[in-house]
Structure formats: structure tokens, C-alpha cells
Specification:
Layout lengths: L1 H39 L1 H15 L2 H30 L8 H22 E2 L2 E2 L3 H14 L9 H9 L21 H13 L6 H9 L7 E2 L6 H4 E2 H15 L5 H22 L5 E2 L10 E2 H13 L6 H9 L11 E2 L4 E4 L2 E4 L4 E2 H12 L5 H15 L15 H12 L3
Antiparallel strand pairs: 1-2, 3-4, 5-6, 7-10, 8-9
Length: 413
């Protein structure tokens, strides 16, 4: 009994000390607050002094303020911990339900818009590059999508624009445009999405254009060492990866797979540990890195199942821009690429916003907990209702932008 009274006495003494400490702490905070406020706004300082005097009249009032402050701290800490907890145990960015709903609705609108742009009176419209991007985006958005035209119509549309001097495609089917590895890759990927087999010579065209170190030039005939292109290499490995899955000859499938692996290793080595890529990393001239290009490359590496991307994914998260890129923040290197004795400009557009969204979603599982939280916040700003991507409409002059935006939105549906 005596021991219990002694313990109770010590606890009571300790409680009184804690209470006096809390009261003194609140009083000190008020004094500092009044002093700081006086320098900024004398009028506000006078009001704070009146409030401070009211609090000092009773100890209970100061304890009440401390209690309210503690409750607020607990609420903030709980929200903070909840955000980190969700990020740590989620394989996909935990976005708000209203954001996901808005993304699904916008993806549906864009899919309908670009399909109507592609098909008119039972025929496909547009150049090979844009048409292929639309077809791939529609399939990516909905794996069960059935085109409004027959498979034969799709094949006829693209085959009519191929060559004639090679089994490949140009930016536009005219003699003054060189054979284009990017357009050819998107076209073959698009055909594969709809079960249309590539001709043996079309695959051979891609394989033959690969440089000794693993990269591909954008234009056939360009010297691979100097003009190996990050964009072209990413596009080619995407196409070959799709074609390899449909190849029945084991030896040929192995050859295609080896080319894809060499291309992926070339891209990884040109990143030099940083998740950023230049347009022409081996060129002796000054090189410039592009956010949209880098997002496309990282997407390609993930799509083909490249191993060892953890470091690049974490670096990608650390380098996410503070602000989301503008919807029309398109960049092109404009580099002059030599093919024989002629030079052709590389005017490939690197779309920053769509491919940053896609790459961030792909990199999310490998990010640190802090990186996941940063990615979720960034994606929420980029995709929430009212964000610029939701302002896209079917009448947008550039149909390829709509297709790439659909790529970004489908990654979150």
C-alpha cells in the first residue's frame, strides 16, 4: 500500500512537471509569435497580443491550446504516414478515384475521336506513321478492340505505301523522303497488333540496318556509328519484340531476340546510369537530352522486359520535373542525318507530357517509397480533372498527339 502511494506521488509530481512544461511552452510560442508578427504587421500583432492575454488568464486554456495543437499534429502525421503506407504496398500509383474516373472517360473519348479520324467511308486515312500509331494506341487502350475495317483493308492500306525500293516505309510515300526506321517499326508493330504477319523481307530490313554496337539509325543507309538514334532504336526493338512472339521458326526467332537484346543494351549503355537519353548519343557534336524521348525509351525497355532497370527507374523518379510539361511541349532535334551524299533533317517530335506519364507508371514498381510518393503526387497533378490533358479534343489538328495521349491515359485505366 505504501509502495502504491509512493508511485502515485511520483507520477503526480511528474504530471505536474509535464503540465508546467506544456504551459510554459505555449506561453513561449505565443511570445515568439507576437514578436515575429510585430515585424510583419503591427495590427495583426495587437490582435495576437489580445488572444495571448486571454490564454494566459488560466492554465486550462493553455493546456487546451496544446491539446488542439497535438491533435492537429496527429492528424497531419496520420495523413502523411497513410500516403507513404499506400505507396509502399502498391504496385501502381494510388491515385484518387475521381482522377481515375476522369482518365477512363477521357481515354474513351480520345479512342472514339481518333478512330473516326482514321476510318472514313470504310477506308483508312492518313500517312503510315500516324495511322500506325492510332491503330496501336487503340489496341493498347482496349486489347479486345475490333477495328471498324477488315484486316485485309488495314493490310492493303499500309502495303500500298511501302517501298518500292525496299520493304519498308517512309514518312510520306514520296521519292524525296528516305526509308525511315521509325515509321517502318510503328507500321510493323501496328500490323502485328491486328494479326497481320510481317513479310520476311520486312523483318530482314530492320535486322540489316542494325549497327555493330546495337543501335539503329533513323534513316536506312545512314552510318550507324555516328547516326545511331535513340528514338529509332527504341521503336525498332518494340516492333521486333512484337514480331518475335509471332515468329514460328525457332532459329529466326532467336536471331530477332538477339537483335532486340543488343538494341536494349545499347540504349542502357547510352544512359550512363541516368534515365535520360540524347537523340544521337554517339554523335561527335554537342548532344541534347529530351524528356519526351527519354520517356519513350524507358517505356520501350520496360515493354520488351529488359532486366536491370531498377537504377534507371529510381533515377527517373528523382529527376521528375517539378511541374508537369505543357500539353504541346513538343521538341525535335532537327539534326541533319547523312544518307549517302544527302542530308535529311530528323524532325521526329518528342512529346514530353504523354511519355513522361507512361514512363512514370512503368518505373513506379521499382521506385523507393519516397520516389513512389513523389510519382503519385506528380501523376495526380498531371491527370486530375481539369489538367491540360483533359482539354484535348477530337478536332486537335495533330492526330498523332491524340494517339500518344491515349497511350498515356490507358496506362492509368
Amino acid at each position: 500500500m505504501a509502495r502504491s502511494r509512493a508511485v502515485a506521488s511520483r507520477l503526480s509530481t511528474h504530471a505536474k512537471k509535464v503540465r508546467r512544461g506544456i504551459v510554459a511552452g505555449v506561453a513561449a510560442c505565443l511570445r515568439r509569435g507576437v514578436s515575429a508578427c510585430r515585424r510583419l504587421s503591427p495590427r495583426a500583432a495587437k490582435k495576437l497580443e489580445v488572444f495571448s492575454a486571454w490564454l494566459r488568464r488560466t492554465e486550462a486554456r493553455r493546456l487546451g491550446v496544446a491539446g488542439v495543437a497535438a491533435a492537429l499534429v496527429l492528424v497531419v502525421a496520420s495523413a502523411f504516414l497513410h500516403e507513404y503506407w499506400r505507396a509502399a504496398f502498391s504496385s501502381q500509383p494510388p491515385l484518387a478515384e475521381q482522377t481515375r474516373r476522369a482518365v477512363r472517360e477521357k481515354a474513351g473519348q480520345l479512342a472514339q475521336a481518333i478512330e473516326s479520324r482514321l476510318v472514313d467511308d470504310g477506308r483508312l486515312q492518313g500517312d503510315a506513321w500516324t495511322s500506325a500509331m492510332i491503330l496501336v494506341a487503340l489496341k493498347e487502350n482496349d486489347p479486345g478492340y475490333k477495328a471498324r475495317v477488315s484486316v485485309k483493308t488495314i493490310e492493303r492500306h499500309f502495303r500500298s505505301m511501302a517501298g518500292p525500293e525496299c520493304t519498308c516505309w517512309r514518312k510520306l510515300p514520296a521519292g524525296n523522303f528516305p526509308s525511315h526506321l521509325g515509321v517502318t517499326s510503328w507500321t510493323l508493330w501496328g500490323l502485328a497488333c491486328y494479326g497481320i504477319a510481317a513479310h520476311r523481307t520486312e523483318i530482314d530490313f530492320l535486322l540489316a540496318a542494325q549497327g555493330a554496337e546495337g543501335g539503329w539509325p533513323l534513316f536506312a543507309g545512314a552510318e550507324p556509328k555516328r547516326f545511331a538514334s535513340s528514338y529509332a532504336t527504341a521503336a525498332v526493338i518494340l516492333a521486333l519484340h512484337e514480331l518475335s512472339a509471332r515468329e514460328s521458326d525457332p532459329a529466326r526467332r532467336e536471331r530477332i531476340g538477339a537483335a532486340v537484346s543488343r538494341g536494349a543494351e545499347w540504349l542502357k549503355s547510352r544512359a550512363a546510369g541516368r534515365a535520360r537519353w540524347a537523340d544521337y548519343p554517339d554523335a561527335p557534336e554537342v548532344r541534347r537530352e529530351y524528356l519526351g524521348l527519354s520517356g519513350f525509351v524507358l517505356f520501350a525497355l520496360h515493354r520488351i522486359g529488359t532486366p536491370g532497370l531498377q537504377a534507371l527507374d529510381r533515377d527517373w523518379m528523382e529527376r521528375l520535373p517539378d511541374e508537369t510539361p505543357a500539353l504541346h511541349a513538343d521538341e525535335a532535334s532537327g539534326k541533319a542525318v547523312q544518307v549517302g551524299t544527302r542530308y535529311y533533317p530528323d524532325d521526329t517530335l518528342y512529346r514530353a507530357l504523354p511519355w513522361t506519364i507512361v514512363a512514370t507508371v512503368n518505373a513506379y514498381p521499382n521506385a523507393s517509397i519516397a520516389g513512389k510518393v513523389r510519382a503519385a503526387r506528380w501523376l495526380e497533378r498531371a491527370l486530375e480533372p481539369g489538367a491540360p490533358v483533359h482539354a484535348l479534343v477530337g478536332s486537335e489538328p495533330d492526330a498523332s498527339l491524340l494517339a500518344e495521349a491515349l497511350f498515356a491515359l490507358r496506362s492509368e485505366t
